[in-house]
Amino acid sequence: MDPSGAETISTTLIVHIIDLLRQEFDYVVIDTPPALDDHVLAAFDRSNVVALLATLDIPALKNLKLTLETLDLISYPHDRLKIVLNRSDSKVGLALSEVEKTLKAPIVAQIPSSRDVPASTNRGVAIVSDDPKNPVSLAIRKFLDDYVFVANGDAIPTQMRSDRRTSLRRKK
């Protein structure tokens, strides 16, 4: 679909689609654009966990701070918001404690950099499936264990399933 047609889609339809997906799948992951429009807020409202991703660069952190301030203004529940730092091991002169102080919020997960991620993506396979012991995979798994499974009231699996896509497949 041409992105300019997004304005013709109602938030009611977005909510309906998300509800249908939640009936069919154990987990629904929605990758939203960075702007907080009605569609994004509707998706947030239907979510148990909202992972807000940022990298260690001033523009990304400034945008995240604005997002957090906007969500404060509309009284969005903070308990659903989880800040995740992507490429967290980048040596760019920003200390994690300073970032948290600036954001006035904790960073709950840190995903390290890895050349294996784009290589895996280029093969059409998620890094967590391609290399479950990769530090990126382990960090993603820890975030899922600590926040996503817990928020959904699910038992935390003791090990990765041999078919790692099981939880993303249709419910039986």
TrEMBL record:
UniProt-recorded Gene Ontology molecular function terms: ATP binding; ATP hydrolysis activity
GO BP terms, alphabetized: negative regulation of cell division
GO cellular component, one term: cytoplasmic side of plasma membrane
Protein name (Swiss-Prot/TrEMBL): Unannotated protein
Naturally occurring in which organism (per UniProt): freshwater metagenome
